[in-house]
Amino acid sequence: MSYLALKHLHVTCVVLSGLGFALRGWWMLDGSPLLKARLAKVVPHVIDTVLLGSALVMAWQSGQYPFVQGWLTAKFFGLLAYIGCGTMALKRGRTKEQRLLFLVLALLAYAYIVGVALTRSPLPWL
């Protein structure tokens, strides 16, 4: 697969992953039973697996790697924050207030990752 096709696949998965997470966050806050639906549990894993796989192949094809390129290192740590906060928001938060806080933090981490990707800078808004 060409680098450009891979990048388009990656960006599509980024958008789908972010929208899906925001929707599941809304369902969590609303107490919707849709959050427990099989599709709501399986589809995000499929999208995120393709997202991660495309990222790894793009890194390999371009010769740019985390801990070598500062902006990719920033994306890596942003991803860890996004995953941790997202897990707390959708599964592990004990109260709705905790879940809301972690939802907001996860969405901020997502925005940071996108900003880093667009600017190729660890400090995207400076």
TrEMBL record:
Alphabetized, the UniProt keywords read: Membrane, Transmembrane, Transmembrane helix
Judging by the UniProt lineage, the source's domain of life is Bacteria
Sorted alphabetically, which Pfam families does this protein's record hold? SirB
User: Which stretches are transmembrane?
Assistant: 6-27, 67-88, 100-118
Query: What InterPro entries does the record tag this protein with?
Result: SirB (IPR007360)
User: From which residue to which does any coiled coil extend?
Assistant: none
What GO CC annotations are associated with the protein?
plasma membrane
UniProt protein name: SirB2 family protein
User: What organism is this sequence from?
Assistant: Candidatus Dechloromonas phosphorivorans
